[in-house]
Design brief:
This protein is an alpha+beta fold and 80 residues long. 48% of the residues lie in helices and 12% in strands. The longest helix has 21 residues. It is elongated.
Amino acid sequence: MTPQAINAWREYVLKHIVDNLETNKDNILDHFVCEDNHCLTRQEIEQNGLMDFDISITLHRDKKQSFGLGLGFFKVNLIR
């Protein structure tokens, strides 16, 4: 298995995760606001940049034995 094939798989999965989050953004926010015990509103979440975050995928096979993200660490900046 080539590193290019592994990276293609990782990017494919990551794209689907990001697409799912973008598609379900409103539903996720609505559920959080209903279940939240900290009294955050949807407006506060959006105005304070809490919807701007990084998503990363590290394949278990790429993890180092010690602490760290591993050789296969890949992340994407989720832009709303």
